[in-house]
Specification:
The chain has helices spanning 2-32, 37-72, 76-86, 89-100, 111-131. The chain is mainly alpha-helical and 132 residues long. The chain has one domain. Helix 1 (2-32) packs antiparallel against helix 2 (37-72), helix 2 (37-72) packs antiparallel against helix 3 and helix 2 packs antiparallel against helix 4 (89-100). The chain is elongated. Keywords: Membrane, Transmembrane, Transmembrane helix.
Length: 132
């Protein structure tokens, strides 16, 4: 279980890094006007955004396994918080459905919510680790 949780956390960080790298490349292409804006928008829609949502799905699975691991080690409060936070996998699956269906079924992503919840869970985990 420890190795599984570690691999999921590293996979999340790797996928987010790839997504951020692609976003930086798109920003450079826009700033230098090497390609048209329509092409950069397509790169965002086809590659960068779905990778970021898939990385958040991996993060939710990681949080579920991390919560179970914390409960097994008798850190009940932090474990329950991470388990509950891991249930956001439903939200991220609905965003992924929105990206891959032509009828735009599912939920449109709210960047303020996604960034806020990511910051908040890592702040909670950091404070929890300091307390442990």
């Amino acid at each position: 279980m420890n190795v599984y949780t570690l691999v999921l956390g590293l996979l999340f960080i790797f996928m987010m890094s790839v997504s951020m790298f692609l976003q930086v490349i798109c920003d450079i292409l826009l700033a230098t006007q090497l390609v048209r804006n329509e092409i950069v928008d397509k790169i965002f829609k086809i590659v960068s955004d779905p990778i970021e949502v898939m990385s958040h799905i991996v993060k939710s699975i990681w949080l579920l396994s991390l919560g179970m691991l914390m409960i097994q080690n008798h850190y009940y409060i932090l474990g329950v918080i991470t388990l509950i936070w891991g249930l956001l996998i439903i939200y991220y699956f609905n965003i992924l459905i929105n990206y891959y269906t032509k009828q735009n079924r599912g939920i449109r992503p709210n960047t303020v919510f996604i960034n806020g919840e990511t910051f908040l869970i890592f702040a909670i985990l950091f404070i929890g680790i300091l307390v442990i």
